[in-house]
């Protein structure tokens, strides 16, 4: 029964990390855009800058999966590796675009990584509770 509970914890929080990260990132972008409009800031919307970074949603899902799995496996260095690969792959696109696109990349990456790490931390805590209960 304990093994089944551990599998459920890992699967549910992994699915949450991958599936809920994109709506969370979009929510943050909308909040930033709304605040800037309210303050009278006249520059391109961060949400609209997404057209310049194709595949961002799928890259974010894979990024969160890698970080979640890496932390659970005890390989926290996966965060640095994932961010380095992502930054190097996106560098040519970011260099050739507006500052709104670069801001979207940085903000989206931070929100995504923090959410995945938070889900992994919660999973580790719950797994420790399950292990302690036996």
Please give the structural blueprint:
Elements: H1 2-38, H2 56-72, H3 78-95, H4 99-132
Helix pairs in contact: 1-2, 1-4, 2-3, 2-4, 3-4
Q: What's the shape?
A: elongated
Radius of gyration: 17 Å
Helix content: over 70%
What's the helix count? 4
Give the SSE string.
HHHH
Low-confidence spans: pLDDT under 50, at least 5 residues?
none
Q: What number is the mean pLDDT?
A: 89
Please count the beta strands (DSSP E, at least 2 residues each). Answer: 0
Terminal CA distance reads: 10 Å
Count of distinct structural domains? 1
Task: Classify the secondary structure makeup into a structural class.
Answer: mainly alpha
Give the biggest sheet: none
Strand content: under 5%
């Amino acid at each position: 029964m304990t093994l089944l509970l551990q599998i459920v914890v890992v699967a549910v929080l992994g699915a949450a990390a991958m599936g809920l990260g994109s709506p969370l990132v979009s929510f943050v972008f909308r909040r930033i855009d709304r605040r800037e409009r309210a303050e009278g800031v006249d520059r391109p919307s961060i949400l609209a800058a997404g057209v310049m970074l194709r595949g961002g949603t799928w890259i974010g899902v894979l990024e969160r999966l890698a970080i979640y799995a890496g932390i659970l496996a005890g390989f926290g260095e996966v965060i640095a590796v994932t961010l380095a690969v992502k930054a190097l792959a996106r560098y040519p696109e970011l260099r050739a675009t507006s500052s709104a696109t670069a801001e979207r990349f940085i903000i989206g990456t931070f929100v995504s990584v923090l959410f995945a790490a938070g889900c992994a931390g919660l999973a580790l805590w719950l797994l420790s509770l399950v292990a302690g209960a036996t």
